[in-house]
Amino acid sequence: MSTRPRTPGPSAPAPGKLALPELRAMKQRGDRISMITAYDAPAALLADEAGVELVLVGDSAAMVMLGHESTVPVTLDEMIFLTRAVTRTARRPLVIGDLPFGSYEISDEQAVGSAIRMLKEGGADCVKLEGAGRMVSRARAIAESNIGIMGHIGLTPQSATKLGGFRAQGRTADAAIALYDAALALEDAGCFAIVLEAVPAPVSAGITAALEIPTIGIGAGAGCDGQVLVWHDLLGMYTGPAPRFVKRYAALADEMGEALAAYIADVRSGAFPEEQHAYSIPDDELALFEAALGARR
Ligand code: KIV
Question: Considering only CA atoms, which of 17, 55, 26, 22 is closest in space to residue 38?
Answer without folding.
Answer: 55
